[in-house]
Amino acid sequence: MTATPRRAGRRPGTSQTRQLILDTARRHFAELGYDRTTLRGIATAAEVDVALVSHFFSGKQRLFAEAAALPYDPAVVLSRLLAGPREEIGRRLADQVLDLIEAPASRGRLIALIRAAASEEGAAQLIRERINRELLVPLAAGLGSPDAPLRAALTGSQVVGLVMARHIVGIDPLPGTGREQLAAAVAPTLQRYLTGPLDDV
Amino acid sequence: MTATPRRAGRRPGTSQTRQLILDTARRHFAELGYDRTTLRGIATAAEVDVALVSHFFSGKQRLFAEAAALPYDPAVVLSRLLAGPREEIGRRLADQVLDLIEAPASRGRLIALIRAAASEEGAAQLIRERINRELLVPLAAGLGSPDAPLRAALTGSQVVGLVMARHIVGIDPLPGTGREQLAAAVAPTLQRYLTGPLDDV
DNA sequence: TACCCAATTCAATGGGTGTTGAATTCTTGC
DNA sequence: GCAAGAATTCAACACCCATTGAATTGGGTA
């Protein structure tokens, strides 16, 4: 059962190889994190030569940058958030987060992002800026209160913590806890961070 | 300015080298994560030969296991938590977490733990079990309610999220936010996860 | 003082990594 | 139907890594 070595040269038909590599890379980054993901591993899984990966994406860093693009359109998320009644914004956010994390398409990318942010300083910086620019700043602007940046950041902390605990570390019983129950439990926290009082009572 | 190469053989005086290496390793693991930390890097920083590191700790994994021991005594934390009035348990937990993350001694170890949990599956498993056994299970037992495991896990998610956001990713303005303000903001969340209603209202 | 063992360095080994240049095969525009 | 360029592989490079065995020096003890 030796895999037939493929001859050099372009393959017949129209090529979707670039996309295939990108998808494979996303899976690997999500499962292994940046460091443990190797170009060779991606290439093997995509049944392609290593050099092709570097050829298409000009190196590992660029490949990661492309693979780890936000798995959603921040503008859409934000407009949905700010649209409805302000007293239910926490619940709406919880729902959107759970949607994203449960849809297989976005799930991997989200996890890859968080993993990378935790392990690689360079990636952390890139991600911090992206999140700030595309999510937190507009969100804070939408809230309009003077302590809005702090509110946005606190909100982010709970969102990140939830994804970490449920999907990366896997703290029982979170991975098996139903969507509805989770949304209900977390929504009031987000609501208070976004609109409630921030001082202890 | 060439560093004088040291001759082989034991150095004079009583040796604290093992401890020195361990401290250096902690710093490196905390700053770089597991993968990007190299024995060579540790050795160089500790002004010691690489082989000595492996000699003392029998390899990178074991070194990490020793460096990443919990930076506090879970029993103490738990007893302090469960001791006072139940209505202020959220605030007490927030204070203890902030104490740990601000004390230089424990800070690095906490960060290393979280980084490793996010990036290395093996470490994640080890850490998950430790946290479960030493923190969450006793905490749930102390709470005594039927949904206690879920409550403990939610609490953990906010704690982890806070440390991530404030110290690892560095989401503004959290890193510069004062201890008191932060404790006040987060305490009600922890309080509700631990003792409040978990269903949306 | 001798002896044993711990601490320390040196040197070598084997493996894995990302990247690069050249060669081959195909598609596409003229 | 020809030429240019894109897709693909092969092979090699230079680098870094953890681990191991042997050699050297010092401390502690009998």
UniProtKB/TrEMBL annotation, chains A, B:
It holds the Pfam family TetR_N. Residues 38-57 bind DNA. Residues 15-75 form the HTH tetR-type domain. Keywords: DNA-binding. Signal peptide: none annotated. Coiled coil: none annotated. PANTHER family: HTH-TYPE TRANSCRIPTIONAL REGULATOR RUTR, TRANSCRIPTIONAL REGULATORY PROTEIN. This is TetR family transcriptional regulator. It comes from Streptacidiphilus cavernicola. The lineage of its organism: Bacteria, Bacillati, Actinomycetota, Actinomycetes, Kitasatosporales.
